[in-house]
Design brief:
Radius of gyration: 21 Å
Structural class: alpha+beta
Order of helices and strands: HEEEHEHEEEHHHEHEHHEEEE
Number of helices: 9
Low-confidence stretches: 350-354
Number of strands: 13
Shape: globular
Largest sheet: 7 strands, mixed
Strand content: 15-25%
Mean pLDDT: 92
Distance between the termini: 28 Å
Strand order of the largest sheet: 8-10-7-11-9-12-13
Bound molecules: magnesium ion
Length: about 350
């Protein structure tokens, strides 16, 4: 055992992904220490290992922490429980697999009541029923902040799993659903909270706060995200297997960079092709921001980004995806073609929790 090091590097200096890399190095995983059955360890949406007869399990884990991932003043407990399951199911969908089992570790501060904990579990139960997975274990402990840590185990045929790597130049880059509405919803909810805080302090607050009823879709996207297992099923029905796949949790730009790095390719994203909901445009206008920024950098959409061979395109129902760009050679980098036709470098600038 080594004594703690003298140096103190703040986590924000290396960022979330930099920290993951440092911790992976600390584990010192090498080919000798990894079991033969392991196909994919750290570095994709979920780990993948063989369980025999051509089948694999995929495993993913994610924590939601009060004050970092959610604000209890405007997130009802039931939604929180739902979201904790849905975001993990999204990572299973991002391997083209089907979720089977979940475990939940819940850390509760003493200002959470039994009834609130029940509501939380109501949301967990609803999500488990919707996504057809069994909650098979868990833990409850006391803590200073409400934290939900969920692990989901999924299953697939080994040959059907799709990884972040595998995109090839010429593939179409496609997304499900729309982009940026969850982030727009968060802005609207935060503005509503600030207005209430201001009025309870006797202040005027924002002069024209957004009318919540005009942003019901965006708010729901933030509070009640849907994992895209429907698309995974659609691909299976149509015999389509994307070359590469990732879920959009940190914003499209960040995920495109992950796919490109994993597959040693580049990409051109067409700003004019990004699917953006009318409420995202309205929220951007209200807050004086760019709808494009919401679509590229707003997190938590939990849609899927995938690289599709051009020839597979006609097999899919047109309404299930949008083409947003193309995979190119690595040396072309990751770029964005603006609506004006200008090609600019697209940086990853993700959703920074630290
Ligand atoms: Mg993911």
């Amino acid at each position: 055992m080594h004594l703690p090091s003298e140096s103190f590097t703040p986590i924000r200096e290396v960022g979330e992904f930099g920290l993951i890399e440092r911790l992976r190095d600390t584990l010192g995983l090498t080919l000798d220490t990894v079991p033969d059955e392991l196909i994919q360890g750290i570095g994709d949406d979920a780990a993948v290992y063989r369980v025999g007869e051509g089948r694999v399990h995929v495993v993913t884990t994610d924590a939601l922490v009060e004050g970092v991932h959610f604000d209890r003043t405007f997130v009802p407990m039931r939604y929180l429980g739902w979201k904790a399951i849905a975001v993990n199911v999204s990572d299973v969908a991002a391997m083209n697999a089907r979720p089977r089992y979940a475990t939940v570790a819940l850390a509760l501060p003493n200002n959470v009541s039994v009834e609130q904990a029940e509501a939380l579990y109501g949301g967990i139960a609803e999500a488990c029923a919707r996504y057809d997975l069994a909650l098979v274990g868990g833990d409850v402990t006391a803590a200073a902040r409400l934290t939900l840590s969920v692990t989901v185990i999924g299953e697939a045929a080994e040959h059907s799993v799709v990884y972040r790597r595998g995109a090839r130049p010429g593939d179409l880059l496609c997304v499900t659903g729309d982009l940026g509405s969850a982030a727009a919803g968060l802005r609207v909810l935060l503005a509503g909270k600030q207005r209430l805080d201001a009025s309870s302090n006797g202040e005027a607050g924002e002069s024209s706060p957004p009318n919540l009823s005009e942003f019901a879709y965006a708010a729901e996207r933030q509070l009640y995200p849907q994992a895209r297992l429907d698309r995974v099923r659609h691909w299976a029905e149509r015999g389509v297997k994307p070359h590469a796949l990732i879920d959009i949790s940190d914003g499209l730009a960040s995920e495109v960079h992950h796919l490109c790095r994993a597959g040693s390719v580049g990409a051109v994203i067409e700003a004019g092709l990004l699917p953006i909901h009318v409420q995202t445009f309205k929220a951007a206008e209200h807050f004086g921001e760019s709808p494009l920024a919401f679509a590229l950098y707003g997190g938590e959409d939990y849609e899927l980004l995938f690289a599709l061979p051009e020839a597979e395109r006609e097999k899919l129902d047109e309404s299930t995806y949008a083409v947003v760009g193309q995979v190119v050679e690595a040396d072309a980098g990751v770029t964005l073609r603006t609506p004006e036709g200008e090609v600019v470098s697209l940086d990853a600038q993700g959703f920074a929790h630290f």
